[in-house]
Known about the structure:
- This protein has about 200 residues and is α/β, with parallel strands linked by helices.
- The protein has helices at about 40-55, 90-100, 125-135, 155-160, 170-180, and strands at about 5-10, 15-25, 30-35, 70-75, 80-85, 110, 115, 120, 140-145, 165, 200.
- A 7-stranded mixed beta sheet has the order 3-4-2-1-6-9-10.
- Strand 9, helix 4 and strand 10 (about 165) form a beta-alpha-beta unit.
Amino acid sequence: xxxxxxxxxxxxxxxxxxxxxxxxxxxxxxxxxxxxxxxxxxxxxxxxxxxxxxxxxxxxxxxxxxxxxxxxxxxxxxxxxxxxxxxxxxxxxxxxxxxxxxxxxxxxxxxxxxxxxxxxxxxxxxxxxxxxxxxxxxxxxxxxxxxxxxxxxxxxxxxxxxxxxxxxxxxxxxxxxxxxxxxxxxxxxxxxxxxxxxxxxxx
Length: 203
């Protein structure tokens, strides 16, 4: 289904799959973000939107496409507080998926913070997230290039069940998730991870 992408969450009790949903309808440029999200996760949604706007021409979208639509980003299980930066690439992918009406395979999941320039930045809890991916039937996981060394900490039985794809720019994510091959993928430099408060679902 267009606009629905699997993210990977990290909680105090372990990893989990949490979908990001995006709906695009005719409107006047309103961006709504729901799902009981914390400040950092809201900022990730804003950064994802800025990236998509910066890539409008390459995505074959009108330069001012966002002024003619209302966009709703939702993270289900709205009663559970959620925060953290690493849902950024999932949100950006869901936005592009919805805008282009292109499906993302539901056996693919991803985790990574996004910068305004589309760089994919490192995240925490990769071991737990990969375990959750296997439990949920995911086959392919996109992870930040800077986190690839963390795979060594994961049980070999888990790693063998997944295709783990390192990415360091959002353009690479869109190529893998949506088959978009017309976007240039510049070299990216990863930044610092942001810590999230205890007891909150992080992505």
